[in-house]
Amino acid sequence: MADLDDDELLDALGVEVAPIKASSRTPREERIVAGFEDILRFHQAHGRAPLHGEGRDIFERLYAVRLDQIRQLPEAQTLLAALDGPGLLSGAVASLVDVDDLDGDALLAELGLDQGDESAAQGDITVLRHVRSSIEKRAAEEIADRTPCSDFDKFQPMFEQAERELKSGFRKALRFGRDISITTSNYFIVGGQLAYVAEIGEEIKTISGHDDARLRVIFSNGTESNLLMRSLQKALYKDETGRRLTDTEMGPLFGDAPEPDDIESGTIYVLRSMSSHPFVTEHRELIHKIGVTGGSVETRIAGAEKDATYLLAGVEVVATYKLHNLNRTKLENIFHRLFGAAQIDLSIEDRFENLVKPREWFLVPLQVIDEAVQRIRDGSITDMAYDLETARFVKL
Prior knowledge:
This is Putative helicase. There is one protein chain. By secondary structure, the chain is of the alpha+beta class. Helices cover 33% and strands 21% of the residues. The chain is built from 13 helices and 15 strands. It has a seven-stranded antiparallel sheet with strand order 1-6-5-4-3-7-2. A four-stranded antiparallel sheet has the order 10-8-9-13, with helices on one face. The protein has a two-stranded antiparallel sheet with strand order 11-12. The protein is elongated. The N and C termini lie far apart (86 Å). The relative contact order is 0.08.
């Protein structure tokens, strides 16, 4: 037995040794397979083929062009048939870019290939000019890892209010720069979506010793993400369109220096609808419209039964407050900020049978509105928020 060499010993033990098979693929074929496997991983992650389009992630666009090119290769069907379970080579997803219309430089630019590289000059479809680090990939994946928000109805009025405040100048969108702090109730624009930080978990330490925390971030498209604070910060830094929305700056409601939207004297009025709509009938004592006018309230509400703004019904004036040297825009924005979450979502048909959704009615008790006006007068409203569950003001 000692005189047997290794092969003889394995044979004596009954162990068959299979010869190592050398790859029968050429280097070009290996690159095509590797490139197609990237596209398959994208399909597995997103449930669809990659698409063209300026609004899409650069890597998705690269994969889309790569897939178009692979489909045109004569050897692709035979080489990749065993891998193509989803049927990507069939071209079921129409391309938005006709690669036949692209010249060599345009195609290389679309693919992300380095024109100075010899292999790129030969049309190598698998060599990328820019490759993200694993850290950047993890950060991007975490931002993209979203799930449907089950209680989005609670947040939707807040997003609508933030958008109104942004359009009216009550808020500003600033580049995410030196101020990298993130707290609850912050609004950001990231990846083209408005994002709201609803919750911040307990502080944790990263492997590198940095402070971090898990966030619950709600997005305006009805999704949410449970991501790390540092991941959100990185995403905002890297996103050229990333912005932080400033907090609402109340500013002086009353003052000596007149502003363009100031009125010398005016009235805050609170209305109650006489509509026979079932929802209004059920909650009539709680549904109120809050407005500001520089003229007569009676003139303002004349013809309410013909105006969808007033729910196509008569209204009852339940409270008025006289004010002087007030800024109408700031005052109306304050009411929208305070009671945005309590804005009713009601659709009615106007006299032309068009469906309209009045936006100026709130499910708020009259005594809370009265408290809001008093707090506006003494300036304490800046520290308060309206709690929908308890129907009262709470400290921010």
